[in-house]
Amino acid sequence: MCKALNISRSGYYKYQDKVAKVDNYNDIVVRIFNDNQKVYGTRKIKHSLAKQGICISRRRIARIMRQNGLVSVYTVKKYKVHKTTVNEAKIENKVNREFDNRNPKEVIVSDLTYVRVNNQWNYICVVIDLYNREIVGYSCGKYKDAKLVKQAFLSIKGNLFEYNIFHTDRGNEFDNYLIDNVLETFGIDRSLSRKGNPYDNAVAEAHFKIIKTEFVRERTFASLLNLEQELSAYVYWFNNKRVHSTLGYQSPVEYRQNMTL
After folding, report:
1. For 95-107, what is each residue's pLDDT tens digit?
2. Which of 1, 9, 22, 117 could lock onto 122 through a cystine, CB 3.0 to 4.6 A?
3. Residues 169/200, Cβ–Cβ less than 8 Å
């Protein structure tokens, strides 16, 4: 066949090797996408490939994704800023949008979102450590109230006395006597965003955009127990597997472990 087509045997084998590599890249990209909740785009897939010693361009990754119909569910959240110069509550904003370069357990932030469970609204609350963006506590329930926040707070593993600041927005679920008593018990300072300004709690807001996009929209929940089980599995993946650009494309747990070496 080589003689008939007037090509060299070495040229034929080089071509076969090239085809094999392309097919291999295709399989690897598809596997990485599917293994990570179908949320990775070209940038995170490229970094995942680099960890395996594979260097290919984002353009090629995008082409492989198009060919296989792989579309990340992730989108960028846009906020409409509400201008205000008044901090109506006595509790001040101690974080002051300084989210980066925090020490472990120095600042934890929290927020809530709604989830449809068997045609009824249920709610999720998470607590995030600003140090490595790890979800350290979470809860879900039928009511959007202080008890849900308390449940998420008390689910945090380890010594709660080691945490310094608890930062949230000014929702009634966070700014109440029940949460005041919990924080006072463990000697944790409270910090509240300014009224109507989501940028003051931007990390929690961004995390819930991710959770809504990657977790809530992609699943249906038959019961609260089903939601609890699925949320537990998602949180484990989020903390241990999902890479974050703010952490140098490491997972929160990987970042924490590498920083303690």
Report:
1. 988 988 899 999 9
2. 117
3. yes
